[in-house]
Every structure is written in structure tokens, then in C-alpha cells.
Amino acid sequence: MLTTDPYDGDRFREECGVFGVWGHPEAAALVALGLHALQHRGQEAAGIVAYDGEQFRAHRAMGHVGENFGSKEVMAGLPGSTALGHVRYATTGEVALRNVQPLFADLELGGFAICHNGNLTNAYHLRRQLVRRGSLFQSTSDTEVIVHLVATSLKGTVVDRLVDALRQVDGAYSLGALSQTALIGVRDPLGVRPLVLGRLGDAWIISSESCGLDIIGADFVRDVDPGEIVVIDDDGVRSLKPFGRHDSRFCVFEHIYFARPDSIVEGTSVYEARKRIGIELARESHVDADIVVPVPDSGVPAAIGYAAESGIPFELGIIRNHYVGRTFIEPTDQIRHLGVKLKHNANRVNLAGKRVVLVDDSIVRGTTSTKIVEMVRNAGATEVHMRISSPPTTHSCFYGIATPTREQLLASRYDIAAMGQFIGADTLAFISIDGLYRAMGEPGRNPNAPRFCDACFTGDYPIPLTDRDAGKVQTQLSLLAETA
Ligand code: AMP
């Protein structure tokens, strides 16, 4: 399929967003709005489970939140004062629909819904054990492992069973769960993925990012702490920390690219962080040029920072078409390569005759940069200097951000000079890892105790990669193939 996403095709996406409401008469409608604000975290499927004190009801669909949760009929089918929802990437087809979250199961203790942002790194291993013991899996998603561990736990309450289950899983996870008695939010011990707590009148909200609170006018209360479980019921919020103390390792790529710039995560404005990264980038890799041009949208805040620091004027030299669905033309390999053109067009009047600094957030396979540089040259730019607001992406992410395999990462094959040649730029520079940490308010990267998970830039993986080390590729598809 022709898509504008450089990662389509060969694997499931793991990026996701989680949103839950406890104690509001229109809980499901609020969840739909929250998911709409989190749509950037997962654009291909969405689901909501609502509970009205008697019955759990679910609606899950491929496509955008607005397309699937916009109708009165659908929302009327999700009554109750508590609801939980999820957005995710997925491929099309029946298998994919089975994977759309929240997952739901009727447990011994009653209904239980769960949804997950992140990726478990020992899901394959656990799934093998569970299947041997007789668990019958309904989906190919790593999250279902948690459902089976909760179902088979010998502990008493839902929360104790969930804790019991989570003690067995490794990986990055921000979870939302819903039982008959509570809405539960969880962050893994290192807090790799975000999750925040909010308040709207008497109602409590959990959301992957604070932009999900803004859309419904809810107040931001606080981040859920790394390793914390918040249990929300009619008595309020109870906080558990069953995993002991760990230094957090929040994903720095959330700040660079993934989170929405109007979100505040871990006390830091994503927009401000991106701007500061652009400032550091300008300090590290100044070049004489006429204009600074962002690759929209993700390059915009860093380009603003770069322009401010360098004194070179900021211009919109590339315009993004916002009406491009991820997939809308049937595939052939030739038109597949048109992807970038569908999404971006050169603004010729700004580019002709200019020496251009192009700012983007990352180079992954190099496809986007190659096409953008060519487009900017064809529009008459005399020089093109590419500046990237992340260090070179040399390693795959196993903690919930879809990246291609290591061999497909341009920076794992080439040094920076060769990458520059590959993308056709006059010069290419990335922010250094220390520069990135400086932009985040640190003196530099402390190799003994880095504040962030930066494995995609350093190969320093803070959570064991059990499945990968056992030679099991961690796509959910392969889970299906090997255990079915
Ligand atoms: P590539 O063509 O593979 O070098 O893609 C790099 C572009 O993809 C950058 O401009 C990013 O904005 C964007 N990008 C980076 N990481 C991801 C991701 N995990 N999923 C989708 N897009 C991404």
C-alpha cells in the first residue's frame, strides 16, 4: 500500500495511546475525545470499553477515532460512568482487528479490560509457558500475556493479581486497566512510556499525555510515577509502588519526536525541549546559510530553536498536506516511493536561490531525507545543509516505538559523511548525545546513570531483551506463527 509512513509493511506498530475515565456520566464520550488528542500515538485502530455497573461493552475498529466514535449510535452503545480506550497502529485484516485494544476477558473476579502502550520484551517466552499450561490466546498481541497471567494468578484481588502478573513481565509498559471496582493506571519500573493523572470535576482521568487532558478541559494532577500503580475508585486514588525503587529511564525519543509538542511530560514541555535541542544543534553545527527550513511538522520546534540561536531567518520552505491518510492508493513499488511527495511539497518562492538549513528530527532509513533534499534542490536551493535534532539512530527500539531492524537503519551502516552523501546533502550534522542531554537540562550524558532511555542512539538497553536474545524476533506476527 502507498503510505506516508516509512515503517509500514513489514511489522506491527507498537506505538499506542491510553486514556481512561472514572466517575463521569459521559465517560465513553470523554474517552473518545481523549483518544482523538492522542491519535498521533497510533493512527490505525481505536477501541473503547465502557462499564455501567452491570455490563462491560466494547467497540473496536480500524481507522481513526473520529471515523469510528463520531456517531450517536456507537456512543449510545457505550453507557456508563467509567471507560477505557486505546489508539494503536496495526495492519489491516481480521488478525489486526483481534489485536485492537482494550483487550477484554471475563475472569473469575469479573470483567477485566486492559490496554498497553509499550512493548514487552519477554512476551514470547511467557506466552510459550502459558500455552504449554493450556492458555488459549485470542490475539497475537504481547498485551494478552498480561491478561493470562492475571487470569491464572492465585492472588486474591484484581490489583494483587495484576501486580503478580507484572512481576513476571519485562519491558516498557504504560497500562490502563478496568475492572468492576476500579480503573487502574500503571507505569513500568523505569517509566519508559508516559502516563499522567488528571481531574475533571469529580471524575478521574488517566492519559498517555497531558494533551489528552486539555481537550476535555481536565486539570493535570501529576505524572504517574515510574513503577507506580494508581488504583482509582469511588474512594479516590490509591498509589502502590510494589516494584521497589529504580532510577527512571524515560524515553528521550518521546521528547524528540513522538509526544505531541503541546504535552508536558515528566515536568518538561515537549515543545520547549525540542526548541532547546534546536538551540544546541545550532551551537554544535553552525553553517552559513540564508534560511532555516523545518521538515514539517516534527522538525518545526527544533528549527525555531536553530533559527533563534543562529540568527538565520526561519521560513516555511516545505508545506505539509494534512489530508493524507496513511494509506489510500493501492500499491505498486514505484508509486510507493511517492509517499513523501504526497505528504510534503516545496514552497518554491522561499527556496529558489537560497542556501538552506533543513531541520528534521531523525534519520531512520534515510528515505524521507533523501526525497526532501532532492525536492528542495529541485525547487532551486543552491545549498542544502541537513541538521538532525537527534543523534544518529543506530539501534532498534524494543520498548514500544516501531523502528526497522538494525540493518535497515542508515546510521548502523554508514558514518555521518557517508550518510550525508546518501541523502544528497551538502553537509549533514546530528546533535551529539551530550548536546541532547544538555538540552534536557543535564551537564551531559552520565554513562553510569543516564537519565533517559536512549538505547536507539547508544545501544544501552536498560531492560533485558529476553526474546530478542533468544533469537525470537519480537513482532507480534511471529508470535502468532510460532505458537499457533
Ligand atoms: P526515514 O525515511 O526512515 O529516515 O524516516 C525518518 C522520518 O520519519 C523522520 O522525519 C521522522 O519524523 C519520522 N519518524 C521517525 N521515527 C518514526 C517512527 N517510529 N514512526 C514513524 N515515523 C518516524
Tell me about this structure.
The chain is of the alpha+beta class. It folds into two domains: 2-249, Aminohydrolase, N-terminal nucleophile (Ntn) domain (Glutamine Phosphoribosylpyrophosphate, subunit 1, domain 1), CATH 3.60.20; 269-458, 3-Layer(aba) Sandwich (Rossmann fold), CATH 3.40.50.2020. It has 21 helices and 25 strands. The strands form seven sheets. Strands 4-3-5-2-11-10-12 form a seven-stranded antiparallel beta sheet. A six-stranded antiparallel beta sheet has the order 6-7-8-9-13-14, with helices on one face. Helix 5 crosses helix 6 and helix 10 (270-284) crosses helix 18 (433-439). The protein is globular, with a radius of gyration of 22 Å. The two termini are 27 Å apart. Residues 5-7, 257, 295, 298, 360-369, 401-403 line the site of adenosine monophosphate.
Tell me briefly what this model is.
The protein has 484 residues and is an alpha+beta fold. Helices cover 31% and strands 25% of the residues. Helix 5 (123-132) crosses helix 6, helix 9 (252-258) packs across helix 10 (270-284) and helix 10 (270-284) crosses helix 18.
Per-chain topology:
Blueprint: E1 2-3, E2 16-22, H1 27-37, E3 45-51, E4 56-62, H2 65-68, H3 72-76, E5 82-88, H4 94-99, E6 103-107, E7 110-120, H5 123-132, H6 143-152, H7 158-166, E8 171-179, E9 183-187, E10 196-200, E11 203-207, H8 211-214, E12 219-223, E13 229-233, E14 236-240, E15 250-251, H9 252-258, E16 264-265, E17 268-269, H10 270-284, E18 291-294, H11 300-310, E19 318-320, E20 327-329, H12 333-336, H13 339-343, E21 344-346, H14 348-351, E22 355-360, H15 367-378, E23 383-388, H16 410-413, H17 416-423, E24 427-430, H18 433-439, E25 452-453, H19 455-458, H20 466-469, H21 476-483
Parallel strand pairs: 15-25, 18-22, 22-23, 23-24
Antiparallel strand pairs: 1-20, 2-5, 2-11, 3-4, 3-5, 6-7, 7-8, 8-9, 9-13, 10-11, 10-12, 13-14, 16-17, 19-21
Helix pairs in contact: 5-6, 6-7, 9-10, 10-11, 10-18
Residues 5-7, 257, 295, 298, 360-369, 401-403 line the site of adenosine monophosphate.
